[in-house]
Amino acid sequence: MSKKIRTEEVDHLFDAILSLKDKEECYTFFEDVCTVNELLSLSQRFEVAHMLREQKTYLDIAEKTGASTATISRVNRSLNYGNDGYDMVFERLEHKEKE
């Protein structure tokens, strides 16, 4: 993990996020913390990652999400060479769906 983001301020933000109890609280908090465009960009990247894991083509992903090929490429790089954060979350979500 990059040491550039490991700061006391980021720790406080993550502690705040971890304190949220449900999706409604997430909406309340993130609408205050992020601009609409920031939140939509984050959700777009998450959807792009999901579609890349499903082996969708860049064209399919761009059409469905509106993401640029540069964004799709960046997310793909994170999936292939990042810290496996996307994989960790997707595996947990898949496990939760099976329960």
TrEMBL record:
GO terms for molecular function: DNA-binding transcription factor activity; sequence-specific DNA binding. InterPro entries: Trp_repress, Trp_repressor/repl_initiator, TrpR-like_sf, YecD_YerC. Pfam families: Trp_repressor (PF01371). It comes from the Bacteria. NCBIfam families: yecD_yerC. This is TrpR YerC/YecD.
